[in-house]
Amino acid sequence: MASSSRPDSAPDSLQEQRLRGIAANPAAPPDVLLRLLDPAARAAWTTLCEERDLPPKVVEAVLAHPEHTVRRAFARNPHADPAQRGRLVHDPDGRVRGTLAGGPRRTHHRIRPLPDEVLETLLTAVDRPGNNDWLTAGEIAQELESSRQIPLSFRLRLPEHPHPVLRARGTDQWKHLTPGQREALLSDPDPGVREAAARAHRYLDPEAMEADLPEQDCHARAVLLTNYPVTRAVVEACLAAGRNHWGLAHNPHTPADAVARLARDPDPEVRNRVATRADLTPALLAELAEDPDETVRSRARIQPLPRTWAQCRAIDAVIDWDTAYPDPELDADWYAACARSEHPVLRRLAAMNPRLPRELVEPLTADPDPDVRHALALHHPLAPPALVLDAFLSRPRERPYLLTLPDLPRTGLGHLLGHEDPEVRALAAADVALDEPPVRLLSDPEALVRRAAAANPLLPLAVLLPLLEDPEHAEGAAANPGLPAARLHELLDLLGVPG
To answer: Closest Cα partner for 431 from 403, 412, 408, 450?
Structure first.
């Protein structure tokens, strides 16, 4: 498919359309792409640097380009190897480093992590004297923290890292550290690490947490009451005042008798949160499984006892965010049990595990629940192409990501040429194995479809070349791999792009 990330109503000139089309052309040789880095081809920079894979020679030119907008576009390119993007970690412009830290746009489920040395550089950076960057080193680190480019394995190594800044950051995982790791951090030779460790350790002391607990409702109060040990006095004060019930219902340290009271809270969101706990008694779970609220009943019935907190967190992630985060506490046997479960939420969670073995994947490809099949298509490398195509047809919001998957069928799509959805017609219009060129789709009412049809190499040159002069087709035609390299150079000459 030709580039389609811009709205059809954008008032672009014929010159801009041609430049973007050439930038998207998969057959454009490196010497053509290098010409597009000239300021005269500025309209092509986003398409060229952010929206496609690039040959090594062009990558080198992009990394050394004097315009920060070029380097920023490459910094968020999801097609580029993270090691290539990571070379921008020492870029002189803070905006480029910040974009690198922010990572590719979130149309992609699998955000590939940056190399360890790049993460270390970004997380240990300090502002230079007289720094006039657009972003401070701290702001760039915050961008990185929320980018999903830091793998769990890196975070778990931080408590033993030789750099004190990273050891201090490792205290963020305090609840998951071993007693030996905690003791080492509390007695660390670096005062900053000791201070961070003492602060983290204080949160595990209920009395200290009570002393530090803000009186007014705020983010800090919510975090403490949702995650850390609480005193009986704090619990009783919250219950009496009708405050922070959801946080206490979530908190694994809330006393059992208080959990039982929260299971009968008038707010169904609080009862639903109680139903997600791993420490429920069989009687309380049975009570919640018959709750008058359907959401509470459903959540209580998903997984029987016994269950672990890690399992509960994984189920929450699937229900609340339709995703699954890796957790070292979850083993292959539990995922296998989920794959064979009668509950579709658990099967969907298993389908999101890209390491699920083939013998468990195959039954899920024919699962009666479409959400399970689509989760498999989105997350598992063994999902069959037909399933990936079905997900494309059924999950419009996921299409930008599905278009990046090599198993999405690109041929055999002739039966979709008349589909009511223009994004589906565009996919079919790009099929290079159609029985005949998609000429009729050149007059489709949707520009997205017209671009895809014009970019199809099945079009004869006699049909293709005039399209370069037509504002309705110029971008797609310039992206057509059937255009000879000499013709692409001629186009750039015509557009005033230096050779």
So the answer is: 412
Report the alpha-carbon distance of residue 341 to residue 350 in Å, rounded.
Answer: 10
What does the pLDDT look like over 83-141, one tens digit per residue?
Answer: 999 999 999 999 999 999 999 976 656 789 999 999 999 999 998 776 667 789 999 99
CB atoms under 10 Å from CB of 269, counted, come to 13
Q: What angle do CA 298, 240, 209 make, to 5 degrees?
A: 90
Q: Compute the mean pLDDT over every residue in the chain, rounded to the nearest whole number.
A: 94
Q: Is the dihedral of CA 50, 56, 57, 63 positive or negative?
A: positive
Considering only CA atoms, which of 64, 12, 3 is closest in space to residue 42? 12
Cα dihedral sign, 488-490-494-499: positive
Amino acid at 292: P
CB distance 404 to 385 below 8 Å: no
* Burial class (CB within 10 angstroms; exposed 0-12, middle 13-18, buried 19+) of 316: middle
One-letter amino acid for residue 29 of the chain: P
pLDDT digits (tens, 9 = 90+) for 357-409: 999 999 999 999 999 999 999 999 999 999 999 999 999 999 999 998 999 99
End-to-end CA distance of the chain: 28
pTM value is: 0.87
- DSSP assignments along 404-431, one per residue: T-TTS--SS-GGGTT-SSHHHHHHHHT-
Q: HEC profile for 180-241? A: HHHHHHHCCCCHHHHHHHHHHHHHCCHHHHHHHCCCCCCHHHHHHHHHCCCCHHHHHHHHHH
pLDDT of residue 109: 64
Cα–Cα distance, 42 to 358 (Å, whole number): 47
- List for the chain the helix, strand, coil content (%; round to 5): 60, 0, 40
Q: Which residue pairs, CB below 8 angstroms and at least 24 apart, start in 492-497?
A: 492/22, 492/32, 492/35, 492/36, 492/41, 495/15, 495/18, 495/19, 495/40, 495/41, 496/40, 497/19, 497/35, 497/36, 497/38, 497/40, 497/41
Residue whose structure tokens are 């990558």: 59
CA–CA distance, 24 with 29 (Å, rounded to integer): 11
- For residue 496, is it left (φ>0), alpha (ψ between -120 and 50) or beta? left
Q: How far apart are CA 217 and CA 204, in angstroms?
A: 20
pLDDT digits (tens, 9 = 90+) for 178-204: 999 999 999 999 999 999 999 999 888
Q: CA-CA distance, 89 to 85, in Å (whole number)?
A: 8
pLDDT bucket at 1, cuts 50 / 70 / 90: low
